[in-house]
């Protein structure tokens, strides 16, 4: 593999690739000095002079794109044109039309593509998905939850994601709302059909008195294809919340709830009581137990999910089947939901999600 982008996510991708048995041929960052320093830390054999040079290398089979959002589309398309498999960070593109085109190009190229919606790889998420699919939850009437962070709470907090030229027209929903929506659709087996959204800028100026143009908070009502109702609240200015993704599903027979900050547990509720299920491979469905790589009581977390995601991606490249791998089609789906959220917030009306 070769990795483009040597920041936090580039480090996470490279670590998981090494554990999956990949050879890290090279890396490229935002400049030669940073590339050389970060490349060594990633365990890369070479520091490439440019992304194009890395993509063109005959030694690279898979390109991992971990750059600011505005570069995702051009780099992924170049990699596909070069015959490479591609793992691209989300959002896949800064608008749904481009992301949909990328998904189509991936199919035309016949290459394996993946987007790291890695929360799918928590064993207890797979258990929740199994229970919904088995009919144990019954007919779903309500899907709700939140994704809350506080890393942009203060005016002195800043990041390239705040800049719409690099991050795109949406920040909080494209960055973390996309994760929540993907997880909600993955677990429920249903799709968001229409949205009614509000967005707000809470911190109007950040470093150097630069005005903030992308949302700090987004709230969304939605309805699904099957007729279920839902709500989700997303924020990057929620004090004390570090990375709290909460998903709850209510059905005619039972309810399920998953909290990403307590990933060893799955809440299960019925009319006659509720209980917490612990991640115990011996008690899980086969699809969930496959991702429970440690014995019960030995906590698994984010790195384990990322390792499973990369491992499954490489297995599919080798010609094996892996159920639930998030592809460019899933990334395009998330981008179209985000487009609908922005359109609704801008007009104050319900907006249908493009099912192109």
Short note summarizing the structure:
The protein is α/β, with parallel strands linked by helices. It is 35% helix and 22% strand. The strands form two sheets. A nine-stranded mixed β-sheet has the order 14-13-12-11-7-10-9-8-15. A six-stranded parallel β-sheet has the order 3-2-1-4-5-6, with helices on both faces.
SSE order, one letter for each helix or strand: EHEHEHEHEHEHEHHEEEEEEEHHHE
> What is the CATH T-level topology of the largest domain?
Dihydrodipicolinate Reductase, domain 2
- The overall strand count is 15
Number of domains: 2
Strand neighbour order, sheet with most strands: 14-13-12-11-7-10-9-8-15
Low-pLDDT residue intervals, each spanning 5 or more residues: none
Which geometry do the CA atoms define? globular
CATH class of the largest domain: Alpha Beta
- Give the structural class: alpha/beta
Organism: Streptosporangium brasiliense
Protein name: Dehydrogenase
Domain Gfo/Idh/MocA-like oxidoreductase N-terminal: 2-115
Pfam families: GFO_IDH_MocA, GFO_IDH_MocA_C3
